[in-house]
Design goal:
The chain contains 11 helices and 15 strands. With about 400 residues, it is an alpha/beta fold. Strand 14 and strand 15 form a beta hairpin. It is globular, with a radius of gyration of 22 Å.
Length: about 400
Amino acid sequence: METTVYYATNRAHEGPERFRPLRYGKAFSSDGMENLRFGRVTFQVDGARVADFLANDRPHTGPGDGEGLQGYFADCVRNSQKIEAYEERINDRQVNETAQRSTKLGSLAMFADLQKDMQEGRDMLLLVHGFNVSWEEAVATASAFEAMINAPRAGGGMAPVRVLLFTWPSDGMALPWVSYKSDRSDARGTAGALGRGLLKMRDYLHEVGRQVRMDNAALRRLRTRMAGAPDAEVQRAVAEMEVTQLCSQKIHLLAHSMGNYVVQNALSRIWDFSPGEQLPRLFDRIFLCSADVDDDVLEPGKPMERLHHLAQSVAIYHNANDNALRVSDYTKGNPDRLGQRGAARPQALHQKIYQVDCAPMVSGLTQHSYYTNGAVACDIRRAIAEQNPTQRGLRPTGLAPNTWQMVPGS
């Protein structure tokens, strides 16, 4: 069967055709690190094997081997990927796109396709991956996570979620010193691209909102006409416009590992281009998973203090036994990581921010990509469905009102 992932990337394409690339590599786009490509990639998978991964009962984490599914999908992407980038035409990159005539933007084409998805009842979740991730692994992670959170156990009876991938030039080499430093530098460089992409989404949503308001006004006029003298043509126009008003789905953000550092640095770009004293509300839920950032980064006066502006709520998923973050902490000279024991002072966080201790539910070699597995993926799915921690079976830790713990059977 065929599966599809929508993506935005500032990676350099490989192959002779810019908008029909063979793959994307580990360098920045030749047009600059902030230049974004938008597109979709399709690849072939064995439905029976996928079902086996989704049903695999792992110790502690319950049904669903998301990490195993990532590995299988990565092989499938390498062997069968077909990439279709949305074509663009920008006449002068020194002039603002909106001030040019006959400009064609890939972002608008993709947003329009995703809007159709949302009108069919899907939420959107933007995934920003972390350290040491190749193009194929990034695509596989997005697809595997989408499969996990839409599996019957996680999403039964809930509206489906479409996972949109933001992928940046993560080195893809397991050299513990060189590749980590390289990726951290690339993450800082990438922040402008992510910020630019989020600003494009803000502008698109504002335009959609403006159009909806105009359509609502026209709809009211048509209903008035129909009430006075109903005819088939007016009734048909009203029905069509009512369908377009049904899109009430939400957009979410999940950052994994060093992807949180990308988000951290993107906030300043969004701030620079946002009026007033607030960042735009772009997301319903934000999930910070295995975050490779300082454990005080969300406190007042710190780099991510305004993150809560972007969403209705922010959830930190952490695991004290995360071996990858231990490496970041002890061998790279970093302070304590947010993704290990959560926030240094949870009482100092904004009331919209809470944290979930996943350690009791985590097993495996790295214990770092656990968010794609069984119970944790299920908990994220239930949070998207607006269930509070108590409804999701989480247990208060007693450390602070905003600290929770996953327990077997939750």
